[in-house]
Amino acid sequence: WGAGIKNVLVVFGLNISSSITSLLLRLDPNEVILSFNNDSNKNFAGNRAADKAAGKLLKHFDKNQIRILFPTLNDFGDMSGSEINGWKEKHFGS
After folding, report:
1. Burial 75-91 (b: 16+ CB within 10 A, else e)
2. At what angle do helices 18-27 and 45-57 cross, to 10 degrees?
3. Which of 21, 34, 80, 83 is at 20 to 30 A from 90, Cα to Cα?
4. Please, are residues 90 and 72 in contact by the beta-carbon 8 Å criterion?
5. CA 60 to each of CA 19, 22, 57, 86, 94: distance values in angstroms, whole numbers, following the listed order
């Protein structure tokens, strides 16, 4: 939120719960961005979890509605506001 990114949900772990899936179905968003931890430099847990979550959501959403966009560092909490804004601009424009 501090970097101006709104409409976010936190999964608190490595799995999208049925309650989050239900909420997303009720909200009917145009797009769902999965930004789990970028663990590509260690155990890949967040990366695999994002793929698994996308698979779950693809049962309910069109493939063009689901994107996986990892943070540039391990997670957004490790990034400064300007780094998050750079990530946002790269993927969504200004």
Report:
1. ebeebeeeebeebeeee
2. 50
3. 21
4. no
5. 14, 10, 5, 31, 30
